[in-house]
Amino acid sequence: MASREEITVYEDEVRSRYSHLEKMTDLVAVWEVALSDGVHKIEFEHGTTSGKRVVYVDGKEEIRKEWMFKLVGKETFTVGAAKTKATINIDAVSGFAYEYTLEINGKSLKKYMENRSKTTNTWVLSLGGMDYRVVLEKDTMDVWCNGQKMETAGEFVEDGTETHFSVGDHSCCIKAVSSGKRKEGIIHTLIVDDREIPEAVE
């Protein structure tokens, strides 16, 4: 049988471990948004009695409104290094039920991610025990690695272009080659230390 002191210590341990969750009793929605500088977590608290609204981005409080008489509406804030515009819409569904939708740059999250898959390529790889997420923005040819915009050097080669950059002491190159098919357009391939990296699906 555990003594009362042991139980108290255990309860304190549990309480401190979950204290941030205890504060988030009004958590109603969590979204994960993949941007060029990383995958960002957006959490939203909505107190349907007090009208309280709290928005967290990657665990950091961005917006806090304690007393709101209007329970529906929207909250707008920015996400990530590029300060991408995000809006949470709060709509009444019926009675005391609410629906929460996230828009990124004015598009629903689903539409935004579908569009993003056309305008970016993402690769996830492991080098020397470290995980890296490399993102190419096709329209600007900007390359991001683990949240940092990389210094790149581009060159024209016989069958397309090559964008060179390095990650640690590894040489990386994104090759852009025409597929020869109009629908597919240009195919981008990441090569690290002469090894082709398969594209990730986010």
From TrEMBL:
GO cellular component: cytoplasm
Subcellular location: Cytoplasm
Keyword annotations from UniProtKB, A to Z: Apoptosis, Cytoplasm
Principal localisation: cytoplasm
Coiled-coil intervals, chain numbering: none
Cited Gene3D superfamilies: 2.40.128.180
Alphabetized Pfam families for the sequence: FAIM1
GO biological process assignments: apoptotic process; negative regulation of extrinsic apoptotic signaling pathway via death domain receptors
UniProt similarity note: Belongs to the FAIM1 family.
Job of this protein: Plays a role as an inducible effector molecule that mediates Fas resistance produced by surface Ig engagement in B cells.
PANTHER family reported for this sequence: FAS APOPTOTIC INHIBITORY MOLECULE 1 (PTHR13088:SF3), FAS APOPTOTIC INHIBITORY MOLECULE FAIM (PTHR13088)
Record's protein name: Fas apoptotic inhibitory molecule 1
This protein's encoding gene: Faim
